[in-house]
Amino acid sequence: MLNDNTELLKKLCFLENEATAFGFKWETAEQIMAQIRSELVEIEVHLKDQDRHKLQDEIGDLLHAAFSLCIFCQFDAEETLAKSIIKFESRFRETQQLAKIEGFNDLTGQPFEKLMELWNKAKAIKRQP
After folding, report:
1. What residue numbers bound the domain in which 49 lies?
2. Among 3, 15, 46, 48, which has the minimal tally of Cβ within 10 Å of its Cβ?
3. Which residues of the chain have pLDDT under 50?
4. Residues 32 and 88 in one domain
């Protein structure tokens, strides 16, 4: 197994490009979206039956399908992942600040609705120019 995350992304991109060169390729983004939806259904099944091995496999398939869409759309996979991490961190830090303003040291024990309320406020703040 590859240990370095950069190496994992490079391997994934290499395999996707190799498959495409071999003629084993997606024709449309909708085909990939259908695969993503299919993987979501399989994940839901294994969340219910609590088969952790199969669940991990299906989550891996979902991640692969998402990266296939990224590559199909001609985005750099590593850059896309990096942007996603930066975006999440920025929103998360804003969520932490909003929680502190409301008097929370952390959100442990808070209802999910409260978490989403703060997250959505953070998203709105981060969208502002």
Report:
1. 1-75
2. 3
3. 1-2
4. no
